[in-house]
């Protein structure tokens, strides 16, 4: 190596070392907190801008029944469910968005039957307002009916239809079932507990424990949490802005306007042909009628929701099969 090159190398060495030290310092500032505390490397939940801690109201009721929050065990169980849900912002926002679309049907039917409006929150706790919600125990639909209970309350389950996924029919079935349970137990909290774990289990626990108060009964863990989850849904959806959920009007999922037609089919008809005949497509018709299974409607009489304004076109294209509802 020439002398001038060696001299330049020796001269530049301190500057290169200083540069490396500077870069190392920057990296330490960025990453050292994570090395010091690995837990901070985990994704942290979003915090509401108003406050870092949110609390539920000090007085609560469900279907007109007061919740005994003065009981420390009851308060802590409510606190657990509330904390788990109030900070699950994405889920709560989806409840709010979907509720605008589906609550009107449920509220109208509850009012018509003289049932407590609070029962709509049970449906949210069951399915998060999803028509195609399925559990690993075989429950399905908005109200999470298992097949056996669905049959008790006139919900068809066949290869081509599953009425547990029909909002109006499953809501009517749920109202009938809850009324049946209320007549047995005399309290809505016990009726809802029985809806969750079965009336026979609730009867057995009442007999064994000598208690008929939901809040003092030892029940399956899921059922012990059940009423508090419903209460949490009620608190959050009744006054969402109080808890930081300020959803613009435009972001609510709107009610989908539809026409309802009655089809008299003398032969099996592919659903895609019906969709095309009313100016729609297969997937849209399945979304409007989630209870329909498969690709074909069999021989028989069927009520079908189609996109609003499609009735005239459908009658023109399938006049031999159509009878317009009065």
Radius of gyration: 29 Å
Q: Which fold does the CATH topology of the largest domain refer to? A: Lysozyme
- Give the CATH architecture of the largest domain: Orthogonal Bundle
The largest pleated sheet is described as:
3 strands, antiparallel
Low-confidence stretches: 1-11, 30-51
Structural class: mainly alpha
The end-to-end distance, rounded to whole angstroms, is 102 Å
Strand order of the largest sheet: 6-3-7
**Average residue-wise pLDDT:** 87
How many domains make up the coordinates? 2
User: Tally of extended strands?
Assistant: 7
Counting H and I runs of at least 4 residues, what is the number of helices?
A: 12
What proportion of the residues form beta strands (DSSP E)? 5-15%
Relative helix content: 40-55%
Tell me, briefly, the overall form: globular
CATH uppermost class of the largest domain = Mainly Alpha
The succession of helices and strands, N to C, reads: HEEHHHHHHHHEEHHEEHE
Fold and architecture overview:
By secondary structure, this protein is mostly helical. The protein folds into 2 domains: 65-251, Lysozyme, CATH 1.10.530; 258-324. Helix content is 51%, strand content 8%. The chain is built from 12 helices and 7 strands. It has a 3-stranded antiparallel sheet. A hairpin with a 2-residue loop joins strand 1 (61-62) and strand 2. Helix 6 packs across helix 7. It is globular. The model is unreliable at 1-11 and 30-51 (pLDDT under 50).
Topology summary:
Layout: H1 3-36, E1 61-62, E2 65-66, H2 72-86, H3 89-112, H4 120-127, H5 147-152, H6 167-185, H7 188-197, H8 199-209, H9 221-238, E3 258-265, E4 269-270, H10 271-277, H11 282-288, E5 296-297, E6 300-307, H12 311-317, E7 322-324
Antiparallel strand pairs: 1-2, 3-6, 3-7, 4-5
Helix pairs in contact: 2-9, 3-6, 4-9, 6-7, 7-8, 7-9
């Amino acid at each position: 190596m020439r002398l001038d090159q060696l001299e330049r190398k020796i001269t530049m060495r301190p500057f290169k070392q200083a540069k490396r030290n500077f870069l190392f310092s920057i990296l330490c500032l960025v990453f050292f907190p994570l090395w010091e505390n690995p837990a901070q490397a985990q994704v942290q939940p979003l915090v509401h801008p108003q406050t870092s801690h949110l609390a539920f109201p000090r007085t609560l009721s469900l279907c007109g029944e007061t919740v005994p929050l003065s009981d420390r065990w009851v308060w802590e169980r409510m606190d657990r469910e509330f904390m788990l849900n109030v900070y699950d912002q994405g889920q709560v926002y989806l409840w709010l968005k979907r509720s605008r679309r589906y609550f009107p049907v449920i509220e109208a039917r509850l009012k018509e039957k003289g049932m407590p409006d609070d029962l709509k929150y049970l449906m949210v706790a069951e399915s998060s307002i999803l028509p195609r919600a399925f559990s690993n125990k075989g429950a399905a639909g908005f109200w999470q009916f298992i097949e056996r209970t669905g049959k008790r309350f006139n919900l068809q389950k066949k290869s081509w239809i599953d009425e547990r996924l029909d909002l109006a029919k499953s809501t009517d079935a749920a109202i009938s079932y809850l009324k049946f349970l209320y007549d047995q137990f005399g309290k809505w909290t016990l009726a809802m507990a029985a809806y969750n774990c079965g009336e026979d289990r609730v009867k057995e626990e009442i007999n064994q424990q000598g208690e008929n108060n939901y809040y003092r009964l030892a029940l399956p863990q899921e059922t012990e949490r059940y009423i508090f989850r419903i209460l949490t849904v009620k608190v959050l959806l009744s006054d969402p802005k109080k808890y930081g959920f300020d959803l613009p009007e435009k972001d609510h999922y709107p009610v989908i306007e539809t026409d309802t037609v009655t089809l008299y089919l003398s032969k099996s008809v592919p659903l895609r042909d019906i969709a095309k005949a009313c100016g729609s497509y297969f997937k849209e018709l399945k979304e409007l009628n989630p209870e329909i299974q498969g690709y074909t409607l069999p021989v028989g009489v069927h009520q079908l929701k189609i996109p609003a304004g499609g009735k005239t076109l459908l009658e023109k294209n399938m006049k031999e099969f159509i009878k317009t509802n009065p």
